[in-house]
Design brief:
By secondary structure, the chain is mostly helical. Helix content is 72%, strand content 0%. It is globular, with a radius of gyration of 19 Å.
C-alpha cells in the first residue's frame, strides 16, 4: 500500500465513524427517534472518489466516480421517501451508462459505436448489480461483509500502488467504522443508496477489466454467492407466482439469521470466497487463464456450496425455502 493511501485511510476511518454518529442523530431528530436511520451508504461513493483523487487516478475514473456520487445522492431519496421501481431502474441504468462512457472513451481510441455499446452493457450490468447488492442488505453486517471481502481481494491481487487498490482501501476505511455501529440491531443501515454506490463500484471495476485498464477477475468471487442466491430466490418466487415487488425473507443469510443465533449467517460468504480463491489458484496453476479460472471456480464452488448450506443448515428439500412475508 502506498503511504498516501494509508494516510488517507487513517484520516477517513475516524471521519466516517463521526459522520455515522452525526447522521444517526440528525435522522432521528428529523424523522423520529423510533426509526432506524438508513441510506448512510450514500457516503461510500464520495469516499471512493477521494481515494481515487489521492492517488491521482486517470481522469476517466474520476469522472465515473463523480457520476456515481451524483447518482447515489439522487438514489438516497429512495431511503428517505421512496422511489418508484421505474425510477430506481432508470437511475441505475443511466449512471451505469455514464460510467461506461467515461471509462471506455477515456481508456482507448475506440469507435463511437463500440463505446456506446459497451456503455449500454455497463448500464444493464449496473442495474442488475444494484438489485443483487440490495438483496444482501437485509441483516446487520451482511452487506458490510460483502463489501469488505471484495475490497480485501482487490488489495491482495492488485498492485499496491494502483488506483483500484486505493479505492479498495477506501472501501475498507468506510466499511470498518460503519460495521462498528451496524453490528448492533437497528442502529444504522447502508440502505438502497449504499447498495447503489457499491454496485457502481463493481460496475467501474468491470468496465476497467473490459477496457484492459485493470485485470483483477478475482474481485468477482465475493459476488458469486449473493448473485446465485438472488437468482435462486427469483426463480422460486416466479415458480410460486409471487409478486416480485413485495419484500421477502427467503435469502440464505436471512434464513440462517432466523435459524441460528449470533453472526454465523455471515460465514457462508467468507467460506465460499476462500474455497473459490483456492480453486481458482489451482486452475490457474494448471495453465488456465486467470479470468477463465475465476469463472469456473465461481460456478464449481458456489453452486454445490449454496445447496449444501440450504440442505444441511436449513434442511431445505425439494426446493422448499420458506414463504414470503
Amino acid at each position: 500500500m502506498t503511504r498516501d493511501a494509508l494516510c488517507m485511510a487513517g484520516t477517513m476511518a475516524p471521519t466516517i465513524f463521526l459522520a455515522a454518529l452525526g447522521y444517526r442523530r440528525v435522522w432521528q431528530r428529523l424523522l423520529g427517534s423510533e426509526t432506524t436511520p438508513t441510506g448512510f451508504g450514500v457516503l461510500l461513493a464520495p469516499c471512493l472518489l477521494v481515494s481515487a483523487l489521492v492517488v491521482q487516478a486517470p481522469p476517466a475514473f474520476i469522472l465515473a466516480l463523480c457520476f456515481l456520487s451524483a447518482g447515489a445522492a439522487i438514489y438516497w431519496i429512495d431511503d428517505v421517501k421512496g422511489l418508484p421501481a421505474s425510477a430506481r431502474l432508470g437511475i441505475s441504468f443511466f449512471v451505469g451508462f455514464l460510467i461506461g462512457v467515461s471509462i471506455f472513451q477515456g481508456s482507448s481510441a475506440l469507435p463511437v459505436w463500440l463505446v456506446f455499446a459497451g456503455a449500454v452493457g455497463i448500464g444493464i450490468l449496473n442495474t442488475v448489480l444494484t438489485n443483487i447488492v440490495n438483496f444482501t442488505d437485509g441483516a446487520d453486517l451482511n452487506l458490510a461483509t460483502f463489501i469488505a471481502l471484495t475490497a480485501v481481494v482487490i488489495v491482495a491481487y492488485e498492485a499496491s500502488d494502483s488506483f483500484q487498490s486505493s479505492m479498495a482501501i477506501g472501501c475498507l476505511a468506510f466499511t470498518i467504522p460503519f460495521a462498528a455501529l451496524n453490528h448492533r440491531p437497528r442502529v444504522l443501515y447502508l440502505g438502497d443508496a449504499g447498495a447503489f454506490a457499491f454496485a457502481g463500484f463493481l460496475s467501474i471495476m468491470a468496465a476497467a477489466h473490459a477496457s484492459g485498464i485493470a485485470s483483477t477477475p478475482e474481485a468477482a468471487l465475493p459476488l458469486a454467492l449473493p448473485a446465485f442466491d438472488a437468482l435462486y430466490v427469483l426463480v422460486f418466487r416466479i415458480a410460486n407466482k409471487e409478486n416480485l415487488l413485495t419484500r421477502n425473507y427467503l435469502h440464505l443469510y436471512q434464513r440462517l439469521n432466523r435459524t441460528y443465533r449470533g453472526f454465523g449467517y455471515l460465514l457462508p460468504q467468507v467460506v465460499n470466497v476462500a474455497f473459490s480463491l483456492v480453486c481458482a489458484f489451482v486452475l490457474h496453476a494448471l495453465g488456465m487463464s486467470r479470468f477463465l479460472a475465476v469463472m469456473i471456480a465461481a460456478i464449481a464452488v458456489t453452486v454445490p456450496f449454496y445447496f449444501a448450506c440450504r440442505l444441511l443448515l436449513l434442511d431445505d428439500r425439494r426446493g422448499v425455502v420458506g414463504r414470503a412475508e
